[in-house]
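#struct-help
A.M.: can someone run this one for me? Single chain, 760 residues.
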Amino acid sequence: MRLVLNKFIAFSGVGLLSLGLTPGVTAAELGGDYKTLLCPQGLNIPERPHVDAVLEPGDTHMAADNADLIENGISTLVGNAEITQNAQQVSADNIEYNQPNDTANLDGNVNYWDETTFLNSKDAFLQFDNGIGEFSDADYTLIDSRGRGDAEKLTLDIGTRTDMEKLEYTTCDPGDEFWSFTASSLSLDHEENHGTARNVVLRIKDYPVFYTPYMSFPLSKERKTGFLAPSYGTTNRNGFEFRTPYYWNISPNMDATLTPRLLTDSGVMAMGEYRYLHSSGSGEINLEYLPSDNGRGDEHRNYIDLELNQRFLSSGNVFATYSRVSDKFYFEDFGSQLSVTSTSFLEQRADVVYTGTNWNIFARVQNFQTVNRSIPNIARPYKRLPQIVYNYNQPKKSQKLNFGFRSEAVYFDRGDDAVFVDAKTNVNGLRLDLKPYVSLPLSTQATFLEPKLTLRYTQYALDDNPSFKSSPNRVLPIFSLNSGVFLERETSLFGNDFIQTLEPRLFYLFVPHDGQTDLPVFDTGQYTFSFASLFYEDRFSSADRVGDANQLTWAVTSQLIQQDTGESFGSVSLGQLVYFRDREVTLPGTSERGQGISSFVASFNTSIVKDTYISGDFQWNPKVSNGTEKITLQSTYNPGAGKIINLAYRIVRNNEFNFVGTDIDQSDISFRWPIRNNWSVVGRWNYAIPEGRSLELFGGVEYEDCCWGVRAVARRFLSSIDGEFDTGIFLQMELKGLAGIGKKTVDFLKQQIPGYRSEF
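D.P.: on it. Structure tokens below:
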């Protein structure tokens, strides 16, 4: 049958599910919302043909100014010819449609749309049933990745792959092409989300800057085997540095990265990282090896860092970490920031934990490598070979007796190969610590009172040592009484309704005196004085000492809570200890003072100022002339994405009542802030005020738009305990949708600038 119509018709049962469209829907909207702040422009994709008819699954819709239609034959569409079938739509000046084969020849101003691609070409051939098409002299747009360009020949297998010959490719907006590359051929695998190209010439602003006979790149953020972007930088210690990492995507839950690292003043270092992740555990191994360090007399240098976490049975867990370096100078020579170069100990530890109903058991073996050269042998930590902890905690019930039990058995060993000044510093042995307790919580809606009685028994079994008995022990009762009141009132502030709370609290603690000088000190220190420590049952952190106490804590906290939302806008806390008896139990080399009261300690936090969070701590001793012992202030201003300023100031003073070792007086400023268009500045300044020097100082600029970004950072930081500084300049450029070059700085900036975020 032969029909000539200038309206549309529909054949039933010919193709795949037809695509129904509504008036006014653009191709850009169908392709996804990529009109972000960085990509304000669209991709100039013409609007898809509009179909008024209601099509059933399997229909093929055709329209043209003139049509010569032959059912079960070859139909000819002339003038504004259109075909819609499933997700595919085409338009052209002329179309020949072969209904039996479900194919079409298109000629003149050919436009093609599907869910991921738009094409414009001189002529084309399409097979609708399998989604394959061939296009000549095509301009293409890949909607999801924003990739676009032109190709002399383009072959499309919808949703599977795209092949091109003699092409140009970029992800930049039309009319603003910062970068592009030309290639003799390109293959895009949409199922694996990666592309490969041959004979590639990369151009920046039309200037050729790079050639490679072969290139592989991702079409998404999914992992892919291949070379990653090289990185480079320069430092005082190692000279120029260049890395060429190779990424191996072993499986969906396993990968590795192998990186040769050229250091012009030291040699060539091999670096490797292996990671795995599965439903019951994860692990990571990092290795570094420098066979001959020119800067250290051809020494072999190496570093290993291993960490794994594995769950077992219903509530068991195994954790292991092992870190070790070849020498104590390793981090000073190869560390990239103060937090690394100032590392004192590397841990080697394995834990097994199992949790039952109201109880848990924990086993650990632990060792340390001391890498800080300033730490003497007598200050090295003990090995735990092993440590076993068992705890039972009954669910807390008001108005009833509550029971609990905490216990620990651990063997401490520090060896006998080192030279120690005093035999007391090198005793090895077993420590058993048992802590059963009973409490009676009593509470109402506005008050609480909880008496608690604990019995602490500690037994040692020590190796032969002339300074200690072989099996000393200690038994001490501990009584505490915790109480508080919760009061509230309604108030108004800044035109908003709030609830203000007042929460006074009293905490009494009694522990009889036991000198304990006959006991060794394996792992015990003294807690830093703070608002939280006012309510501790012991001022010491472990079982080698139990602090004698007859003292009362008074404290008060006030919160401001918005009535409508329940959001807290801040709190203020103040407290102090009152000593009814002088404290006498000490650690070796320290002493307690006979003061009747402790320092005042206060803390506060507030977010009542819009986009600003402020917090701080204050400690003041009324018994000394310069009573300020500690001040810490932190402020974060974050009015929007990409805008953050952090300010911090810290004073910690060492006096006869406040043993902190060394006075600290430091300021810290860090920020990321947009300045104009797509430019931002980043920086940090950590300054030691008494010494008059910067501990960490860096500054840089960032530029980021839709298709590329660049970041340059210059920094100077303290790199050794001898006061030596290192400097470096780092550059990173990202060609979005292709690759990045330079030293990746984003991880460093996230560590140094709290709240920093970046997409490249």
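A.M.: thanks! Residues 1-35, 417-421, 656-660 have pLDDT under 50 and may be disordered.
D.P.: also worth noting: The domain at 2-160 is CATH 2.60.450.10 (lipopolysaccharide transport protein A fold).
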